[in-house]
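Table S2 (text version). Query chain:
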Amino acid sequence: MADLMEKIISLCKRRGFIFQSSEIYGGLANTWDYGPYGVELKNNVKRTWWKAVVYQRDDIFGMDASILMHPKVWQASGHIKNFFDLKSDCKDCKKRFKTTDLKDKDKCPECGGQLTEARPFNLMFKTYQGPLEEEASLIYLRPETAQGMFVNFINILDTKHPKLPFGLAQIGKAFRNEITPGNFIFRTREFEQMEIEYFVSPDEASHYYEYWVEERFNWYVNLGIRKENLRKRPHHKDELAHYAVACTDIEYNFPFGWSELEGIANRTDFDLKQHAQLSGKDMRYFDETTKERFYPYIIEPSGGVDRSVLAFLVDAYSEQKVKDELRIVLRLHKDLAPVKVAVLPLLKNRSQIVEMAKRVAEDLKDSFITVYDDTAAIGKLYRRQDEIGTPFCVTVDVQSLEDKQVTVRFRDTMLQERIGMDRLKTYLEERLA
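Corresponding structure-token output:
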């Protein structure tokens, strides 16, 4: 399985999905840049999530809150007091370790040296607002996107006038000063979250908690992840965050083992109560039917964009032998594939074929993410598109000049079909719809 991870990392570098950040300077540990195909895959993950939870629903509204927020936000949420890891330092090699990862709390796992007593380290990145670095100007990079939605709860009530249940959705960057990042893009200090805060009446919280566990599990399955590689893991009571009464992780079987893709938590009414208490604002919901004011409970599905990208890459990766040659294919769902159609001339030294292929590509670009490539022999061109997950290749050949037909090649089966150029776009639309 470790070998598979190395293959994924190699493919990402070779085909322009993901690069080491600041690589020309030796790189910065656990930071990654998304290349031309990687950013398309990442954007497609976010786009399909947004479509599923905002566009295709009437009860969830989109938001984009600021990364920098008033420090009292993090005081109310409990992050300043509770958001820390216990860590120990080695007195000899000076390396720092998360206490929960240590089998022997006194002995360094690297050099065998003596460890210091565990000390708490807050995971939030600190910075200063304004020109002076003083305590009064101290602020934090947000460690989650959720609080930006909670503090806007009154604004949503005043502008959208929603009825319970309703939700807010947001995709955005978050920052955590993790002591043990790693496993490629799985755990990094800078990452993106896809979060929903779903507000419900307290007596319906258990129902909607179970509902969202199923809803989010099925989202991954519908985008092609194999069910046997997914599982739901309810948290034990001693695992729960201080604000939650229940939480279930959707886990994926990564090459390094089962790990969390997304967590669905019942946060109760903790957040709204905390912000109401510290801000002095009434953050209760008024029920027009019962004429009562109360704090809604909050069900929170929170997933990682980067973790999802990694899971989709791992699950889509496949190898097969074709005529003693290793064929690598990313069998990505068509909605996630960075490129939908590649147009390839069979002979790049025939100007008429090249011109026709370029015209076909230009015509398709209005409807699909389409690339044109003539930089290698046709076999190599097919292999390149297989490796980035392109569902369809369209080949223009000598016969195309006479019969105005092209060859459409299917990624997953390698089967080919001749299609008239006049109905090519409709043909592809039907298969990519």
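Notes on Table S2: The mean pLDDT is 93. The first helix runs from residue 2 to 14.
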